[in-house]
Amino acid sequence: MPRRGRKNERKHTGNDMTDIVSPETRSRMMSGIRSRNTKPEIVVRKWLHAHGYRFRLHRKDLPGKPDIVLPRYHAVIFVHGCFWHRHEGCKYTTAPATRTEWWMNKFHHNVEHDRLVLEELQNRGWNVLIIWECQIKNDSYIDIIKTFFDKK
């Protein structure tokens, strides 16, 4: 009797990464990973707003479309995920065990892009602050923001 598979089951070759979920489920899971309006970003925005800072979001006319733009201070804030942007020395900066070469290339590209965006913004005279996801988890972002604006 032939084996009956799931409706959308794929046949895996030696080069495919075996997945424990269906392609539809994986697609739904990946679509849930957002680049805008993330929980850490919203935490920072709420704190800024509660303390009287007014800002714009994701300005397309600036390199990297910064998460938060404070025109009055000529400042931008990026809220980076430690995993995706490779926060050096952070426990959340892990590496997947499969397809390591692909992931390392992806991470290298992300870090290089971040460096170029930072450089371009600074060349245009913008003050740049990067807040890491782990700093939000331990509330150290508050002191970082205060220090950043005390210099202005």
What do these coordinates show?
The structure is a single chain. With 152 residues, this protein is an alpha+beta fold. The protein has 6 helices and 4 strands; from the N terminus they run H-H-E-E-E-H-H-E-H-H. Strands 1-2-3-4 form a 4-stranded mixed sheet, with helices on both faces. Strand 2 and strand 3 form a beta hairpin. The termini are far apart.
State the gist of this model.
The protein has 152 residues and is of the alpha+beta class. The chain contains six helices and four strands; from the N terminus they run ααβββααβαα.
List the helices and strands and how they pair.
Layout: H1 23-31, H2 39-50, E1 56-57, E2 68-70, E3 75-80, H3 82-85, H4 100-123, E4 127-132, H5 133-137, H6 141-150
Parallel strand pairs: 3-4
Antiparallel strand pairs: 1-2, 2-3
**What is the strand tally?**
4
Mean pLDDT: 86
Class by helix and strand content? alpha+beta
Total of DSSP H or I helical runs spanning 4+ residues: 6
Low-confidence stretches: 5-16
| Cα-based radius of gyration, to the nearest Å | 20 Å
The amount of beta strand, in percent, is: 5-15%
Strand order of the largest sheet: 1-2-3-4
| Largest sheet: number of strands, sense, barrel closure | 4 strands, mixed
Instruction: Estimate percent helicity.
Output: 40-55%
Shape: globular
- Helix-strand pattern: HHEEEHHEHH
Distance between the termini: 75 Å
